Amino acid sequence: MNISVLFSTFAQAAPAAGAQPPGIGGVLVPMVLIFCIMYFMMIRPQNQKQKKLTEMISNLQTGDPVVTTGGIHGVVANVKDGATLMLKVADNVRIEVDKSAIAVVLKEAKLEKV
Questions:
Q1: Helices marked H in the chain — which ranges?
Q2: How far is C-alpha 81 from the geometric centre of its chain's CA atoms?
Q3: Which of 13, 32, 90, 104 is the most interior residue, by most CB within 10 Å?
Q4: What's the predicted TM-score (pTM) here?
């Protein structure tokens, strides 16, 4: 590509000498709209999901079926006061996991078995 063609392309795209650049309102309004859309489409739902999961973890009781972030399915055997709990994964097999490692609390599975 020839340099003169490149410069002529930029010269044609440049605004005219008397033209005013868009004001602060012309740039600010679309940016605010984009932020609002991102907030209501991405940030707010994620915060609500995290709040719901935190509430479910704080309300864990013995016998609740759960799934950890590592994919281990088990039943809560003992909820401790600290940051851990005992998880029963098989007969006579219990592991200690962090409460923050709980990804899903399967409340509906517990109701079906009863």
A1: 3-13, 24-38, 44-58, 107-113
A2: 27
A3: 104
A4: 0.60
Radius of gyration over alpha carbons of the chain, in Å? 28
Contacts of 76 (CB under 8 A, 6+ apart): 60, 61, 62, 63, 64, 65, 66, 85, 86, 87, 88
Span 61-114 CATH architecture: Roll (2.30)
Taking only the tens place, the pLDDT of each residue in 87-98 is 999 999 999 999
Residue holding tokens 């008397």?
18
Instruction: Give the tens place of pLDDT for each residue, 50-108.
Output: 999 889 888 989 999 999 999 999 999 999 888 899 999 999 999 999 999 999 998 76
